[in-house]
Amino acid sequence: MKPTIVIGGGIVGLFTAYFLQKEGEEVIVIDKGDMEENCSTGNAGMVVPSHIVPLASPGMISKGISWMLSSKSPFYIQPRLDKKLIEWCLLFYRNSNSKHVQKSIPFLKGISLFSKQLYMEFIAEHDNGNINFQDRGLLMLYKSREGENEEIEFSHLAKKSGIEVEVLGKEDIRKLEPHQEVDVRGGIFFPDDAHLSPKDLYQYLKQYLVKNGVVLKSGVRITGFEKGADKVKAVITSEGKIDCKQVMVCAGSWSGEIAKMLGFKLPMMGGKGYSFVLPNNPQLMQSSILTEARVSQSPYGEKVRFGGTMEISNKADHVNLNRVKGIFESIKAYYPEFKAEFPQEDQIWKGMRPCSPDGLPYIGKAPKWKNVAFGAGHSMMGLSLAPATGKILADLGKGKEGEVKLEGFAVDRYAR
Ligand SMILES: Cc1cc2nc3c(=O)[nH]c(=O)nc-3n(C[C@H](O)[C@H](O)[C@H](O)COP(=O)(O)OP(=O)(O)OC[C@H]3O[C@@H](n4cnc5c(N)ncnc54)[C@H](O)[C@@H]3O)c2cc1C
Fold first, then answer.
1. 284 domain-assigned
2. Mean of the per-residue pLDDT values for the chain?
3. What band does 305 get if pLDDT is binned at 50, 70 and 90?
4. How far is the CA of 202 from the centre of ligand 1 (A)?
5. Ligand 1 pocket residue status of 44, Cβ below 6 Å
6. What is the arrangement of strands in the sheet containing 232-237, beginning at the earlier edge strand?
7. Residues 230 and 253 in one domain
């Protein structure tokens, strides 16, 4: 039996391998990196069926422009004369409207709920898998009147779409965070959201896959394909050619480069974010988003991870300390009693979110190639949507139709 090749060993690639292996496929995961650190290992770990609005939405453009003026703001586009960036920005601009949001909601809702269900099944099957899964909901905190208006408006939209949501005042928030003051006007609570430890999940999955016969090849780069009339016959790697039955492309923010090798366009940019872990003192209990600062806070008992910023940049390795300071300073603004010391530079994690220009992932068959499918471009929701994406790709590989509607995620929507 020829193997199925999964390109990219991030969380989407690993869950794809997981479901393919369950279907009895022989699977090889190939990753150019070390499979120790990538965008999937230091994120906020939030599983968010509440996130039904794509990044490209009304107000993002005006907010983005005002944020561009501050070195500590949560959003930045590194200006440069780059055709790929200009095309991406134009598409993002065209998609940032309420019609696009309305059109996207049913697709995002369908896949998000399916993914949460798969997480629950995964946890039951693996007896928790030591991934620190906490099914305790997500709190969106706001300090300003403007933030309140925005979040309440979002809560109406969520409710209308059948997502459970509660509007909380200061007293309710005190009950969720009994150990310290939370300096906010209020918050929106999504009880069905959850969070987990992304690094523990990643390590657990790797061990499970290897134990179950999946081959993980790190430090190996895909450089091209050997193509037949309408099928890919082999992948060409930095270490030679591997014949294959089919290919699943889960290459995160680099997936556009793989599409180019296959002869079509898949607009994608990296949206860099940072995170760091601090001692959790006084202890935060509830995972939250500090909405005006666009900062996430995920508690794991004695430790807590803060993360944020979105820099549309091609410098994957560079740490912009000013933006990390922006994240750090927001901690005291929301939790004035929290004892925080600025992290050492080598303790700052960075990751490139794979961002499509409409905020929707690309999931499904590739144009022209019958045995190639893509699962990429999940932006801020890759961990949350990874199980669903993996299951959908494994089903597609077997010619099975799943229950999730995929039209909104069409891989060829910008292909030309
Ligand atoms: C600060 C921050 C917080 C976040 N918080 C959350 C959250 O709470 N919840 C959530 O759902 N999401 C969150 N995200 C987003 C999430 O981390 C990403 O969407 C997700 O990790 C993307 O996973 P991936 O597998 O698609 O990509 P990646 O993890 O980037 O993996 C892609 C892999 O493909 C490999 N690759 C690329 N090209 C090649 C090639 N040519 N040959 C071989 N290998 C190749 C790369 O080396 C890489 O390992 C956050 C992101 C950031 C930055």
1. yes
2. 94
3. very high
4. 11
5. yes
6. 222-227, 232-237, 240-243
7. yes
